[in-house]
Every structure is written in C-alpha cells, then in structure tokens.
Specification:
CATH architecture of the largest domain: Beta Barrel
Subcellular location: Cell outer membrane
Radius of gyration: 28 Å
Number of strands: 43
Low-confidence stretches: 4-20, 109-122, 775-794
Keywords: Cell outer membrane, Membrane, Receptor, Signal
Domain Outer membrane protein beta-barrel: 365-769
Distance between the termini: 29 Å
Largest sheet: 29 strands, mixed
Region (Disordered): 775-794
Pfam family, one: OMP_b-brl_3
CATH superfamily of the largest domain: TonB-dependent receptor, beta-barrel domain
Length: 794
C-alpha cells in the first residue's frame, strides 16, 4: 500500500508541472450591495455561436474557464433574477492566464418576485457530483427536527416505524454532518438537530473516491449554518409545537468578526413529551399486544468556533460541538388472550447522553490558483449511561420479568486526513490519506428480583459486555478533466480495514472476533452538455456496508416481551456496484431532471426470523449474509413558475429492490416496490407574506417481515416579515389531516396485523429576530440567500 501511494504521489507531482494555458478567471457580483453571486452560469462561445466550454461560480462568486483557443470569444453570464450579460474577449499568445476582473450583473425587475419566492422555499442546485437542496428558508421545515425536514427532500424517505433514513429506497446510507461522520445513532442525531440550524442538504448518490465508501445508496451530507458577517451579528428563534403534547424550542446563532478573526457560537434547546402507541394482534389466535411509549426528553446543543485568517494564503479553524440529551422512557406492554390478561409489563428507562466533538482544520492555498493543502483532525465521543427497571404488574408470583439493567455505553471516533489538490489544464488532481479509528464499549449488568424472597430484593444474575475496535487506513486519487462539452472524473480509494472485538457473557464466557480486509473502491463519472440547457451524466461507484457492532454481537437484547434480538458474529461486509444515468434540462424559469439507477449487492446482509423453541409465542430476530440482491429505480423532479408569484416543485420516485431473509428455516425473496410522490407549492402574497403548501404520498411497502399500507401527508406553512424585515413570524401545520398512522401486517414468523399511532401531526408557531451591526445588511438581502453563512471549510 505504501509503495502504491508513493507512486501516486510522484505521478501527481510530475503532472502538476504541466502548466495551464489560455485560462480566464474572474468574479461575479451584485453591483448594488457588492455581494458575490454563487452558482451563476458562464458560457464561452466562438464568434459563430459554437459552445466551447462553460463554468459555474463557486460559493464566493469566482469562476475559471480553462483550455481556451487563442481567438475572439463571447462570454455569457447568467443567473436567475439578473439580466444576462455578454462580453467579448480577444485572447492572444500572451494571455496564458487572463483575469477578466469583476463582472457586475444587474437585477432584472421582471424576475424580482421570482427570486424572492425562491428565497422563501427550498431551491435545488445540480452540481457535477451532487444535488444541493437549500433549506435555509423552507417554510414547511420551520420548527421541525432534521428528521422531519428530510421527509420533504427528493430521493429521501423516513420509515416512521423504525426511524431509519433511506436514500433511493435503501436504508444503508451514510449521514454526515458538515462532511463528518458521527458517533450518534442516525435517527437520534437527526431528531436532536433542529432544522433551523441547517443551511443545506447534499444528496450524493455515487460519491467520488474522495469520500468514504460506506453506505450502499450513497451519502446525505447536512451542512450547518455559520455566520461570517462583519461585526457582531446574530439571530434568535423562539417557537412552540403542539400535538398531543406541547414542546417549546429556542435557538440562538451569533458571530463576531473583526480583523482576521471570526468567532461564532450557536445554541439550541427543546423539551417535551413524545407518545407513541403500537397495537399488534395475532390473527391465527386471539392474542393482542398493546404497547404505549411515553418519552420525556430535553436536549441542549452548543457549537462554538473560530476561523483565523493567518495570512492571505492560510486559514486555521477550530470548533467544538457539545450535545446534552436527557430522556425518561416509559414502555407499558399489555398482552391479552381471549380477553384475559396474560401479563402487563412496565419498562422504565433513563438515559443521560453527552456527545462532544472537537475539530481542527488548516488550509493552505498556494500561489497557483486552485492548488491547496488541507490538514484536519476530528475527535468525537458519546457517553450514554442507561438505567432500566422492568416490572411485571399482574402476575406477582413470577419474578422472571422483574429485573434491572445498568448499561454503560461509550463510543469514540478519531479521524485524521490530509487532502491535496493540484490544478492542471482544464481540470485538477486530488489525492489524500485518511485514518479512522472507532471504539464502541457496551456493558450491561443485570439484577433480578429473588424468586423466593417475600420482600422485593435484587440479586445479580450476570452481565454482558462488548468491546468493539475498528481501524481504517485509506488513500485516494481523483483525476478531473474538462474537454469542450465533456467533463469527467475517475478515481479510486484503497482501504485497509482491521477489526478487533470481544464479547463477554456470564453464561457463555468470552467470544473474540478479528478481521483484516484490503479493498479497492473505484469511481467514475462523465458529464456531457448536449447544449446550454441539456446535460447528461453517467456515474459509477463501488460501495461497502460493514456489519455494525449491534449486528455482530451474540448478546440477546430485549425488543418487546414477545421479541428477542441478537447478532451474528459470522457476518461479512456487503459490497455494492452502483451505476446511474441522469438527464437535466433547463427550462424557462426552472428545470426538469430525470434519472435512473441500478445496484447489485453481493453478500447482502439480511434478516433471520424464527420462533423461539422455548416459547412458541416469542420470535427471535438475527442477521445473515445472502448471495446477492438487485435494486433499480427511476426519479423525476422539476421546478418551474406557472406565474410570477407561484413556484411549483413536483417529484416522483419509484424503486424496486430484492428483500431476502430466512423465515422459520425457509429462504424467502420479496421484490419490494416503493413509490413516493411529492408536490410543493410556494406562493408570494406580498413582499412580506409568503405561503407554502405540500403533499406527500408514500405507496405500499413490503419486506420479508411486514407490509405497510400507503399514506398521504399534507403540510402547510406561512411566514410574515415584521420589524423592517428583521423579524419573522412563522406558522406551520404538519400532517394536518392526521394520516401518518401506520397500518401494517406481518406473515412471518406469525400472522399479525398492527397499527402505529404516532404523535406526528402538529402545529408550530415561531418568531425569529435578526440583530447586529453587519456591514452587509441591505434591502436586497434576498439575493444573497445566506450564501455567506456556511463558511469555507467545514
């Protein structure tokens, strides 16, 4: 591996010596407020109108056009809400690198309302390797959690039964925060993260070799807000959400930028009760199980950081995230048969979780434009102690179900990476190294009420523990090139994966698990511009999903009084080859996007469900590897304006995938078809008042264990600007017809039908206020659309 990386390094250095020729650079800004205009389109044509090449401005408004002929060129600058500007340039032999300077785009008054509407709802930016959904001012997401917000994102689905997030119909997706993995369970993380702290969502379905290959269906990268305005600035949001229970929330975002330093601090908190019901009935016998979940939760999230411009070429950034989450969960399970109570089980759990992240990032920009070196170190830890009391409320003669669990749960993640970018003629080369180490430690101490004691006394009956270490050493190489109408990238990532785990159980003793794997993950994509308005993309990547600690631990876990879950230490990783084809067409005041994909997964990880030999009314759930599984699908989305004050965004997705498993010693395969349709309407009633209305339909879903019936959800939102635009009053209604209650049936290992009743329908009322001394404040703020709030490198 070392020899391979050194070879790549020397090759890159040699290529970097190849100088760029005939290059045009510049910056596009708004002349009224001097704000940069990101994602503006630059088209380069010859005198006869033939398209030579093109570019899109970056987040700071800069652009580069490379590999240009020595002749007279016509440059066209376009961005929605602005008048198109055409400029002529005559390149000569001396103009190897020509800086065109600053390009000023004038506002188009005919499109003024259009820009305002887009600033009040989600907008989509299609880049070469990803789709960026800006949710900063999405009315439907106001006051929601990040998990609820993702429900509105095309290609993303939320399973409200299990809480899992899916991308293109598959739950094996890597969810990142500012490009970094997290120790926290994805569902828990997204529930804790308020939507008002999120700037944008990046959907990357076939990531390049620069990204970790984990996640069969790709990556969902959540970009958080960070203000960088000059002076002291901030915003405060206060809201209250009401459903069956009432839940307040508060968020504060501040920054102070002076000289070469920008300090920023964010805080958010929420608290309240969440209640869920699950009614499950066996249809082959009169056995009814009613489960009531009541969770009292409070969370506090802090983020504090500083960016320091050490000089004109280098930036040092430091930040820390601190999250405190307290939960008290009461689960009451009542089981009746033939109208007679069999048992009533009460399970009470208290969690006090603390999550912390520390990040240091250094970026050095060389004299050569586009050449940079980045060094980054990231450490995160999670400490989640839990105390659980399980009691039988009906049959006091049996002490089997009266016990306590004291659980120690800690997770640690270390990440160090080096990334180097070298520009070449009409392209760039990227390569880097990364080291990841993850430790997961879990210990359960169980005490059971004495069987013969007349008074409630506890005695130890044993304990279990899991110590799970994995280390990943990786290196990557990416080559990007543009040639006239074609842009492509090709690369690969090499990874050495080491696993060292030990399991202990009082009855079973010690069990050890070790694994060492070396793999190569290639990726490639090609983009072809049929015209200024038509683009085709073809992309491929190889992905991996490694078994989690939960999936390999042989320790049995309580899922419900009639369900036991345990892992399989013999599980191996599953590998996926994914290919996709996308077409995007720019239309008047909008776009249309059509895509299709195919995935083949080898050594597919799937479930095993069987009846408990000791109790035929109980089921045991575990995991195993199957030969392979296929999935494919089609996606259609669009955004356009029927009239100047109305923006319409419809989308449709359908996915077909194999679901495999062993049920009662019988191998089963089910071809599951998932259909989802969304339509979002944004209306601009006036300069101060906006409305949004959306409908989501999710079709019937089926896997080897259960079938979920379809549902339709309707959401509404409104926002009124007050106090000269500094304040905003928001109101949102989620699932206003209370349809998100899931009816489902199971055929294996028992015939059952059930219904999940969630506390999902709600109404939210919030007020936000912007304050500070920003020199960038202006009447035309809508054009910036918070482009300055992300920052540069995390």
């Amino acid at each position: 591996m070392k020899k391979l990386l050194l070879t790549i390094l020397f090759a890159v250095i040699a290529i970097s010596n190849y100088a760029q020729k005939q290059e045009i650079t510049g910056k596009v800004i708004n002349p009224k407020n001097k704000a940069s205009i990101p994602y503006a389109t630059i088209t380069c044509k010859s005198e006869n109108g033939t398209i030579i090449t093109g570019a899109i401005t970056n987040d700071d408004g800069y652009f580069t056009l490379s590999k240009l002929p020595k002749t007279k060129l016509l440059l066209s600058f376009q961005f929605i809400g602005y008048k198109t500007l055409v400029q002529s340039i005559d390149l000569t032999e001396k103009d190897i690198k020509y800086n065109i300077g600053t390009i000023y785009l004038q506002e188009d008054n005919n499109q003024l309302n259009e820009v305002e509407i887009q600033a009040e709802s989600s907008t989509v930016v299609q880049k070469i390797d990803r789709k960026i959904i800006n949710v900063n001012n999405d009315l439907i997401a106001t006051g929601a959690s990040s998990l609820e917000m993702l429900e509105n994102i095309p290609s993303v689905d939320i399973d409200h039964l299990s809480g899992t997030v899916s991308l293109r119909g598959n739950e094996n997706v890597s969810v990142l925060i500012n490009g970094k993995p997290s120790n926290i369970n994805t569902e828990q993380l997204l529930k804790q993260l308020p939507s008002n702290s999120v700037k944008s969502i990046e959907i990357i379905t076939n990531p390049s070799a620069k990204f970790n290959p984990e996640g069969m269906s790709g990556i969902i990268n959540i970009i958080l807000k960070k203000n960088t305005e000059i002076g002291f600035n901030g915003s405060i949001t206060i809201g209250i959400k009401h459903s069956k229970n009432t839940k307040p929330d508060i968020a504060l975002n501040t920054n102070y930028k002076v000289g070469i330093t920008n300090f920023y601090a964010n805080y958010s908190t929420s608290w309240g009760d969440y209640e869920t019901f699950n009614n499950l009935q066996r249809t082959d016998k009169d056995l009814l199980q009613n489960i009531d979940f009541l969770n009292n939760s409070s969370s506090h999230f802090f983020k504090i950081g500083v960016d320091i411009n050490l000089n004109s070429k280098s930036i040092l950034s430091l930040y820390t995230d601190q999250n405190f989450d307290n939960n008290s969960l009461a689960t009451n399970t009542l089981v009746t048969q033939n109208s007679n109570t069999q048992f009533n089980n009460l399970r009470f759990s208290k969690y006090k979780q603390k999550d912390e992240t520390y990040n240091i990032d250094y970026v050095y920009n060389f004299d050569k434009k586009g050449q940079s070196l980045e060094l980054e170190f990231n450490y995160s830890s999670t400490n989640n102690p839990e105390n659980t009391i399980n009691s039988e409320l009906i049959d006091n003669s049996s002490k089997e179900n009266n016990y306590t669990n004291n659980i120690l749960d800690t997770r640690k993640l270390w990440l160090f990476n080096i990334d180097y970018t070298i520009p070449i003629q009409s392209g760039k080369i990227e390569f880097g190294l990364e080291y990841r180490k993850q430790n997961f430690y879990n210990k359960i101490i169980t005490d059971q009420e004495a069987q013969t004691s007349n008074s409630p006394t506890l005695q130890p009956i044993g304990n279990t523990s899991l110590d799970y270490d994995r280390s990943i050493y990786s290196g990557y190489f990416n080559f990007n090139k543009e040639y006239e109408k074609i842009a492509f990238q090709i690369g690969f990532r090499v990874e050495q994966f080491n696993l060292d785990a030990s399991f202990f159980n009082t009855n079973q003793g010690n069990t050890n698990l070790k694994d060492n794997l070396f793999n190569i993950y290639p990726s490639a994509s090609i983009n072809y511009s049929l015209s200024e308005k038509d683009n085709i993309q073809l992309a491929y990547s190889r992905r991996v999903d490694r078994p989690s600690a939960y999936q390999v631990t042989p320790i049995q876990e309580w899922a419900s009084p009639l369900t036991i879950a345990r892992g399989n230490r013999n599980l191996t990783p599953q590998f996926t080859n994914s290919i996709e084809l996308n077409y995007t067409k720019t239309i008047t005041k909008g776009y249309i996007s059509l895509g299709t994909f195919y995935r083949r997964t080898n050594d597919k990880i799937g479930r095993i469900l069987e009846r408990d030999a000791l109790n035929p009314d109980k089921s045991i759930s575990s995991f195993t590897n199957y030969d392979f599984a296929d999935s494919y699908g089609i996606e259609l989305s669009s955004s356009f304006k029927p009239i100047k004050w109305w923006t319409l965004r419809p989308s449709f997705e359908t996915y077909i995938q194999d679901s495999q498993g062993i049920l009662n010693n019988q191998f089963e395969t089910i071809k599951n078809t998932i259909t989802k349709a969304r339509i979002s309407n944004s209306f601009k009633a006036s300069k101060k008042l906006s409305f949004q209305f959306s409908t989501i339909y999710r079709g019937k879903s089926e896997n080897i264990q259960y079938t979920v019936q379809p549902y339709t959800m309707v959401n509404i939102g409104a926002r009124l600007k007050v106090l000269d635009g500094k304040g905003k009053i928001s109101i949102r209604g989620t699932d206003i017809f209370n349809n998100v209650n899931f009816d489902y049936t199971t055929n294996n290992p028992f015939n059952q039908k059930g219904k999940y009743i969630l506390e999902y329908d709600s109404i939210y009322l919030g007020f936000s206020y912007n304050f500070g001394s920003s020199k960038n404040k202006r009447k035309g703020r809508k054009y910036r659309d918070n482009n300055e709030s992300q920052g540069g490198i995390f």
